[in-house]
Amino acid sequence: MEGTRTIPLAVPNLSSKILENIKETIETGWVSTGGRFIKEFEKKIADYVGVKRAVSCQSGTAGLHLALRVLGIGHCDEVIVPTVTFIAAVNPVKYMNAEPIFIDCDDSLNIDASKLEEFLEDQCHYIDGKVINKKTRKQVKAIVVVHVFGNPANMEKLMKIKEKYKLRLVEDATEALGSYYLKGKYAGKHCGTIGDIGVYSFNANKIITTGGGGMIVSNHDELLEDMAFLSLQAKTDPLYYIHDDIGYNYRMTNIQAAFGVEQIDRIEDFIQAKINNYNLYREGIKNIEGLGLLPFREDTRANHWFYSIVIDEKKYGMDRDELLVRLNKCGIQTRPLWGLIHKQRPYLGALSYKIEKAFIYEKGLLNLPCSSNLTKEDISFVIRHLRLAKNKPC
Ligand SMILES: *Cc1c(COP(=O)(O)O)cnc(C)c1O
Question: Is there an atom of ligand 1 within 6 Å of 174 CB?
Answer without folding.
Answer: yes
